[in-house]
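Q: I'm writing up a methods section and want to include an example of the input and output format. Could you take the sequence below and give the corresponding predicted structure tokens, formatted cleanly so I can copy it straight into the document?
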Amino acid sequence: MSKEIKICFVCTGNTCRSIMAERIAKDILKRRKIENVKVMSRGVNATGENISVPAKRILKEMQINSANRKSIKLNKTDLSTIYVAMNEQIKNQIKGKTILIRDLIGGDISDPYGKSDEVYRQTAELLKRSSEILINKILKIRGEL
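A: Here is the clean output for your methods example:
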């Protein structure tokens, strides 16, 4: 059995981008029957708020888990987790192995907080694409888990 791989998506408040990325990546892993990959999310400035209403709505449209969850602050890092930052500013606040989302899809993912459902949909599509690329890279490097 392969060693577990841990991925942590990190944004500002852990109410939109990172929680959506976590739920989307978990859905991809489940559909592809990939085990030994643990996905989580955190926010560098998270304050315990619930996932945003538009994020819940878009995840539900995608038939992905849209249950409430309080945001979790990134308090400490560990060397066994791959951190995926939504932009350079967030990356600079993380101590640990960190990759930028732009390295996966060629651009940062802007915070959709307070914007329209259409912006959330576009964000979700970018997060889905980046999650698929990341999972494929991990599988390529490690072989099938």
